[in-house]
Write a structure and sequence with these properties.
Elements lengths: L1 E2 L4 E6 L3 E4 L8 E4 L6 H14 L4 E5 L15 H9 L12 E5 L6 E2 L4 H13 L3 H16 L7 H13 L1 H8 L4 H16 L2 H4 L21 E5 L7 H18 L11 E6 L2 H4 L4 H14 L4 E7 L7 H4 L4 E4 L7 H12 L9 H7 L4 E5 L11 E5 L11 H9 L4 H4 L8 H92 L5
Parallel strand pairs: 4-10, 4-11, 5-8, 5-9, 6-7, 6-8, 9-10
Antiparallel strand pairs: 1-2, 2-3, 2-13, 11-12, 12-13
Helix pairs in contact: 3-4, 3-9, 4-5, 4-7, 5-7, 5-17, 9-11, 13-14
């Protein structure tokens, strides 16, 4: 609960009140504890206080109960008991200015980012690529940048990867080798991501994080709630997406130095997922962002079940800590319990390790930074109740809040402008057309040559047949002339003889004299 008169956040009550210093909130914080011990209540109390101070908030809602921020709380016996025991005066139930976001676009404004904005490092983690495959993915991004090909959605990246593989011989000398096996592995990883909903997540209009910086007419910062009940079913996509948001905030905001209060607060639920299986290079980047983002005026709060789930290099940067009860039934759990207890500045009034197992729901061990940045002695304290509803609101309420938001028009319709997919598709189609035309021209030329060859063969055949015909006719004529000549001679001889006989007969008859 933010106390304007004192300029502090009243977070919990022990023998005395435990205050959170706004100027120390950009030293980040941790909310830890077993399931059902009150982490969500702590998160809501801090988030509500930030909003009252005019600090916009982003938080992930995994179980759906954070959505109640948009409704006034309802008095219950538990809240009434807390108000009485902590002597809270003028406690008022209140709703908070809220905007809902959802990667799948079902329970809030659709959340999208582009492939280019996410970059090869986070995308390689999301795809589960090894070092070699990650290196090839960086080559793909470099080629796209050099050739000014926009990578907006998965189909852009998929075709860009194929293009890099098809032209590997051309790119090898300048960028490095892209083997067919590695290209195939990346393509298969992209298919798995698409099956997990990545085709919905990547695209435009991309989420503009500057939209988170908004206030209602009372000056309260907006609660920007990401509905994660479905997204959380894909832990790698969930954690990579929130890490991208955190990195985008770092890139978006200018250096601010030490402020009297943060510019924005970022709550990362189930934070251990951020570090599970992350390669060393990515872990180093995460640690760097967390270390440096406080100078941008960002307060980051990690919510997890056990501090041991977090890297020590990150834990060392979390100055404000709220530790709810831990259970220690197994040797590993007992080890984690001792680890959590040793992370606090000792209070001589109680045994920290034993108290961690005795805390009731709503109680916590709290250690915050004072005005000079010195960690306070750990206190066993009861967390204040939230002013907004503890219950999840109905989908119809979320739909109404979303429809009434000024962001509905901006994010309502997906865009698909010309990008790498369209450009490369055009090049592939042009190449295919040129190939088809070349093949058609080649086929036509072959057919022309075949036709000419056939015509030449037919011509030669006809000439041959004509020669043979001419030869036969010549031979026939020659034989006919010989026969005629012989017959003529015989006929002439006979005619001559007959003529002579006739002549003789004629003479004898005329003269009556028979010559001997």
């Amino acid at each position: 609960m933010f106390l304007p008169d004192e300029g502090k956040i009243w977070l919990a009550t022990s023998n005395e009140r435990v205050y959170l210093e706004p100027a120390m909130c950009n030293r980040h914080g941790l909310i830890a504890g077993a399931t059902g011990t009150g982490k969500t209540v702590t998160l809501k109390v801090i988030a509500e206080s930030f909003s009252d101070m005019g600090i916009p908030v982003f938080l992930a809602d995994i179980k759906g109960d954070v959505s109640g921020m948009c409704k006034e709380g309802v008095e219950t016996k538990h809240i009434l008991r807390s108000i009485t025991n902590m002597n809270i005066e003028n406690f008022k139930y209140a709703s908070y200015p809220t905007r809902f976001f959802d990667v799948y676009g079902k329970l809030g404004h659709p959340v999208r980012t582009t492939i280019s904005d996410m970059g090869p490092e986070l995308l390689a983690r999301l795809l589960g690529l090894n070092d070699t495959q990650s290196g090839v993915l960086r080559i793909v991004f470099r080629i796209a940048d050099d050739e000014q090909l926009l990578l907006l959605d998965l189909k852009d990246l998929r075709l860009m990867v194929q293009h890099a593989g098809d032209c590997s011989a051309e790119y090898k000398l300048k960028y490095g080798n892209c083997s067919p096996q590695t290209i195939g592995a990346i393509q298969r990883a992209l298919l798995r991501l698409e099956d997990a909903g990545g085709n919905i997540f990547f695209g435009e209009p991309a989420l503009d994080l500057s939209d988170w910086f908004d206030w209602d007419d009372q000056g309260r910062g907006y609660m920007n709630i990401l509905e994660c009940q479905e997204l959380f079913q894909h832990p790698l996509l969930y954690s990579t997406f929130l890490l991208w948001m955190l990195t985008e905030l770092y890139e978006l905001l200018p250096e601010a130095g030490d402020l009297d209060k943060p510019k924005i607060a970022f709550f990362f639920d189930e934070a251990h997922l951020l570090f599970n299986g992350a390669p060393k290079a990515l872990l180093e980047k995460v640690e760097q962002v967390i270390r440096l983002i406080r100078s941008k005026g960002v307060s980051v709060w990690f919510i997890t079940q056990n501090p041991a789930d977090m890297p020590e290099s990150v834990l060392g940067q979390l100055g404000n800590r709220v530790q709810h009860a831990l259970r220690a039934y197994t040797p590993n759990e007992q080890k984690a319990l001792r680890y959590a207890a040793r992370s606090f500045r000792t209070n001589p009034d109680f045994d920290t390790e034993r108290t961690l197992q005795e805390l009731a729901t709503g109680e916590a061990l709290v250690s915050v930074l004072d005005a000079k940045g010195v960690p306070g002695v750990v206190q066993r304290a009861g967390i204040l109740p939230p002013q907004s509803s503890m219950n999840a609101v109905e989908p119809e309420v979320i739909a109404a809040v979303t429809a009434g938001s000024s962001l509905s028009e901006k994010y309502g319709e997906a865009l698909d402008r010309e990008s790498a997919y369209e450009v490369l598709t055009g090049e592939y189609e042009k190449a295919e057309q040129e190939k088809a035309e070349a093949e058609a021209a080649k086929k036509a030329e072959e057919e022309r040559k075949a036709a000419e060859k056939q015509a030449e063969a037919e011509r030669k055949q006809k000439e041959k047949e004509q020669r043979e015909k001419d030869k036969a006719e010549a031979a026939k004529k020659k034989g006919s002339r010989k026969k005629t000549s012989a017959l003529g001679k015989v006929t002439g001889s006979m005619a001559s003889t007959i003529g002579r006989k006739l002549g003789e007969a004629l003479i004898r008859g005329l003269l009556g004299i028979r010559k001997k």
